[in-house]
Amino acid sequence: MLKRRRFKQTKTLHQRLQEEAAQLREQARALAPGRRREMLLRRARQDETAIQIEAWLHSPGLRAPT
User: Fold this and answer.
1) Are 49 and 29 in contact (CB under 8 A)?
2) What is the mean pLDDT of residues 25-35?
3) Which of 4, 27, 34, 53 is the most buried (most CB within 10 A)?
4) Distance of alpha carbon 17 from alpha carbon 11, whole angstroms
């Protein structure tokens, strides 16, 4: 049976997503317009959307379903 490799995250999910989005946007700036650039920008937008969803999930106004 295979064992799972586990490790402790040193940064929060929010920090990791922000860093990845910034890195992807920097990479996209260096490229000429085209398919690769659009894919990088799309991934950056997905990371930013994930940041918003994560913030919403952790907001104090969120209530459990009844």
Assistant:
1) no
2) 97
3) 27
4) 10
